[in-house]
Amino acid sequence: MNSLLVADSVSKKFGEFTALNSVSVSVPEGSIFGLLGPNGAGKTTLIRIINQITMPDTGAVTLGGEPLQAHHIRDIGYMPEERGLYKSMKVGEQVLYLAQLKGLDKAEAKKRAKHWFDKLEIGEWWNKKIQELSKGQAQKIQFVVTVMHNPKLLIFDEPFSGFDPINANLIKDEILQLREEGATVIFSTHRMESVEELCDHIALINKSNKILDGEINAIKREYRNNTFEVGVEVGEDAFAKAQSALSSKFTTTPAHFKSLGDELKLRIQLDSNGSPNALLQELQSYGQVTHFVEVIPSVNDIFIQTVNQNV
Ligand code: ADP
Ligand code: MG
Question: Following CA atoms 193, 300, 135, 175 in sequence, which dihedral angle do they give, to the nearest 10 degrees?
Fold first, then answer.
């Protein structure tokens, strides 16, 4: 797959503090690329470098194979973490003004604004001032401003903070659709667990360093460890016996999941060559199996594991 954006060994210091330490990422064309890591990791610094707001000390960034230059700004839609709309300017005027700065003529800007305002059902905000809107509402306007000129690369810095769950989902769906239409999307978040299903590629950033990156399913396959969450309905008298039989053979820990019965619930880790089918068969000998799923590590689990490996 072609990379639309490549950052090669990018480093940035602020005074004595290293905010990015030789970070390289390669963002495949047409992907949704998650830049994930805790607060202060360096995500915004990297995003600001990609947007030519900050210069790297060393390293280089290319877009479509070309070293970054001024005209690339029009190829990128950028929603900053500190949302920057003019508080006392009317929504509609502001949207048209910002779209024209991105190269649209006024008629085209109006057409596209109408499309987005209809789509997000926010037409009644057109004549309001930004300061009359809630934070989440203003953020929707900022989203429209970011995507309206149809840039090939969209960059959202912490797009979901400030949104309630319903609007966060709406924005997730819009991001998926923009990708369907051919855009490449980079977004950052410090809340890894809430958005991992959105990304197909990720880079984990911790304390100015990239600690892991790649295709998310490949990473998960690498970190899976043959663990299954199981539920078995076992008669009351046989419960303890089944439990001790299983824990003598396998590594087991209690499992917590919602169910309607009071079955035996365990997490069972098999040896690397252990067979899930054989486990299922064994469970059936204790009673009715009601639950049997592989435990897929979350990005958050993987992050913690990788950080611990690197210390
Ligand atoms: P993230 O977006 O992952 O939360 P940032 O890239 O915003 O992290 O910040 C990384 C580190 O760099 C933080 O410790 C932050 O305080 C520092 N930093 C960022 N920008 C500046 C700046 N302009 N001057 C000094 N320190 C900065
Ligand atoms: Mg940030």
Answer: -60
CA triple 219-48-150, angle to 5 deg: 80
With the CA atoms of 98, 62, 42 and 34 taken in that order, what torsion angle do they form, in degrees rounded to the nearest 10?
A: 80
pTM: 0.89
| Ligand 1 atom nearest 81 alpha carbon | 2
At 148-197, the pLDDT tens digits run: 999 999 999 999 888 888 888 889 999 999 999 999 999 999 988 777 88
Q: Does 283 contact ligand 1 (Cβ within 6 A)?
A: no
Q: Whose CA is nearest to atom 26 of ligand 1?
A: 14
Q: Which of 12, 17, 46, 188 to mutate to test the pocket of ligand 1 (most atoms within 8 A of CB)?
A: 17
Domains of the chain plus CATH, in order, are: 3-221 (3.40.50.300), 225-295 (3.30.70)
The torsion of the CA quartet 98, 104, 105, 108, rounded to 10 degrees, works out to -100
Where does the chain have alpha helices with state H? 43-50, 91-101, 106-119, 135-147, 165-180, 192-195, 216-223, 239-249, 276-284, 299-310
Residue 120 backbone class (left: φ over 0; alpha: ψ -120 to 50; beta: rest): alpha
In this prediction, the residues of the chain whose per-residue pLDDT falls under 50 are none
Cα-to-centroid distance, 20 and ligand 2 (Å): 13
Report pLDDT for 182. Answer: 94
Residue 125's nearest CA partner among 105, 95, 164 is: 95
